[in-house]
Design goal:
Length: 441
């Protein structure tokens, strides 16, 4: 009857909810907001709001107090809380604080129902974590609009959470791969260092000292020596283009071609008629390595090398220099001097013409083959050390020998550089010549 309808509408409006509204039951329910928790100590007000939300397609649960609401949320997650502000015991503000303190996977959108309209009260609600406010009496259309606003925010937070999850998963996967790669590189570094089995050997009339310090886990530098027939000592220094695993693999291959332990596999040695091994001229070795790089290995890499044969009896050194820095000679207390006839690197040009030259060592002389990691080392202002600066460092440490000389040299180079890691590998091979009075052992 008309009178009864008016009475019912009046009772509902007194409870804080206006019933006149467009029917939205056929509308598609928002994707992000699925489960709504309605909290109010008045059962009548809860039911009116809950029925309206259920008609809009939401899964609605009810709680008569803040404590009951928290128990519901601990048992199963909700997407949105619609809570009255003024309630006995735990009010809406305290409930909001408790909700924000819960350990939850997703964000919970929180709307306070209140008769308060003061700016101070609204600001206080925002401070404790409320997302929105509705003033009583509540219009279903306004409630629906506020929930849709919350739906947009929850969608964004869920999309962000999913992206963060994917980022975290990808990062964890990358970290696992990096850790595995790092372990492999550590082992590779050990293997590369093992290519230089001896850092020092005394041959009686001469000795050889080696330095190999990659700038990263592994590098493209290689130094070594081997016996090159009766009374001959071969010493070399190699610098492969680039850095990292590919360069390190090439150095390992080259170490096999210049092995001290297997003369039959050493490209620098050839078997004589009597079965003994004698050295190929260093320029021929360079030409053979060039052919191997271009025809067999077919690598994008190339390398520089200086290869010298020392006659232990006479002190004469036959040298092939292929794109490598000029060797430095230390003689007495004089300033070190550079000697060299530079040529083409190995692996760049077919049929490249390689030459060799000689250097006479006197007793007490020391000859150093080194990589450009020394001369091209830059300081904080970007200025390179270059040959002049390297000569000064060598001269300053000329009173030392063997590993002590190299350690002091790297220490001084580090002081010149200033800070950070070395940008390039450091390697060097030093021949110390005593003279023919101490024949080779």
């Amino acid at each position: 009857m008309p009178g009864q309808s008016a009475s019912l509408q009046e009772r509902v409006q007194v409870s804080g909810f206006v019933t006149q509204s467009t029917d939205h039951s056929a509308d598609r329910r928002p994707d992000a907001v699925r489960r709504v928790l309605v909290v109010d100590d008045s059962r009548a007000q809860r039911r009116v709001v809950a029925v309206s939300l259920a008609r809009q397609g939401f899964d609605v649960v009810e709680a008569g107090s803040g404590e009951e609401a928290l128990e519901i949320m601990r048992a199963a997650p909700v997407d949105l809380v619609l809570s009255d502000w003024m309630m006995p015991g735990m009010d809406g503000l305290e409930l909001c604080r408790q909700v924000r303190a819960l350990a939850q996977e997703g964000y919970v959108y929180f709307i306070l129902l209140t008769s308060k309209s003061e700016k101070g009260a609204v600001a206080h609600g925002l401070d404790v974590g409320a997302d929105d406010f509705l003033t009583k009496p509540v219009s279903p259309d306004e409630l629906r609009a506020r929930i849709h606003a919350g739906d947009r925010i929850l969608k964004m937070t869920r999309e962000l959470r999913e992206k963060n999850r994917l980022i975290t998963a990808t990062f964890n996967e990358m970290s696992a791969l990096y850790d595995a790669l790092d372990r492999d590189l550590v082992e590779a570094r050990k293997m590369q260092q093992s290519l230089v089995r001896e850092r020092f050997r005394d041959f009686g009339s001469a000795d050889v000292s080696l330095l190999l310090k990659p700038s990263g886990h592994v590098g493209g530098d290689l130094v070594g020596f081997f016996t090159a027939g009766a009374g001959k000592l071969a010493v070399y220094s190699i610098d492969v283009s680039g850095h990292g695993i590919a360069s390190a693999l090439l150095t390992a291959r080259l170490a096999g071609f210049l092995s001290d332990g297997a003369p039959e596999h050493n490209i620098a040695l050839v078997q004589d008629t009597d079965g003994s091994y004698v050295p190929r001229p260093p320029q021929e070795v360079a030409a053979l390595l060039n052919i191997l790089m271009l025809e067999e290995m077919k690598s994008e890499l190339y390398f520089t090398i200086v290869l010298g044969y020392l006659d232990l009896a006479t002190g004469v050194v036959d040298i092939a220099q292929c794109g490598h820095p000029n060797p430095v000679l230390m003689r007495g207390g004089d300033m070190p001097s550079y000697h060299g006839e530079n040529g083409m690197p190995i692996g760049l040009i077919e049929d490249a013409d390689y030459t060799q030259w000689q250097l006479q060592l006197a007793p007490g002389d020391r000859l150093v083959f080194y990589s450009d990691g020394f001369t091209e080392c830059a300081n904080a202002e970007g200025e390179m050390l270059e040959e002049e600066g390297f000569a000064r460092l060598v001269h300053a440490n000329s009173g030392l020998s063997g590993s002590a000389f190299f350690e002091a040299l790297v220490w001084d180079l580090d002081g010149f550089r200033g800070s950070g890691e070395f940008a390039d590998d450091l390697s060097a091979a030093m021949i110390g010549y005593r003279g023919p009075q101490d024949q080779a052992k």
